[in-house]
Write a structure and sequence with these properties.
The protein is of the alpha+beta class and 164 residues long. Helix content is 30%, strand content 33%.
Length: 164
């Protein structure tokens, strides 16, 4: 899979990917768990406001993964819109997206990432934990339990610094 920055022409593909991935875990549009007003405004909400939005393409140009960084404040960004098409899951594409977005968050000057997922997304929970995320809270919303997580990027990056 090749990662690249989102283009306006990707809108239909990322919207379809979002719908497929929500249906896979039993979530539906308008269920109160996920907001969707950002899709028509990805350039404005993500790219123009110290964020990022990446898509993952397989040979032939099919978009099979996506993920975004959304600015919360000067120190913190939200990792969101993490999706991998069901036909392409368990191939490391989600991990590739997390690593790329975490690195981009550091480049953009963020020191902390936050994100959320639901209990009915065990692969996402496993992925975040693998990359050092910690759960900070839970809440019931729209009939689902939503887990909120966080990662300290300064601490994570200090492990990569050369020994002095």
């Amino acid at each position: 899979m090749r990662l690249r920055r989102y283009r306006w022409s990707d809108l239909e593909s990322v919207w379809a990917l979002h719908q497929i991935c929500l249906a896979q875990v039993g979530l539906a549009q308008g269920d109160g768990v996920y907001y969707e007003d950002d899709f028509p405004r990805i350039n404005e909400i993500y790219l123009a406001d110290r964020g990022e939005f990446l898509v993952g393409e397989v040979p032939g140009g099919r978009v099979v993964a996506m993920g975004g960084l959304r600015r919360i404040d000067d120190q913190t960004a939200e990792l969101c819109r993490m999706r991998v098409h069901p036909e392409f899951q368990r191939r490391g594409f989600g991990a590739q997206m997390v690593v790329a977005l975490e690195a981009r968050a550091v480049e953009l000057g963020y020191v902390r990432l936050r994100g959320d997922t639901t209990l009915n997304q065990p692969a996402a929970i496993e992925l975040y934990r693998k990359y050092g995320w910690r759960e900070i809270s839970r809440e019931e919303r729209g009939g689902c339990v939503v887990l909120y997580g966080e990662k300290d990027l300064v601490e994570a990056m200090s492990h990569l610094a050369p020994f002095k």
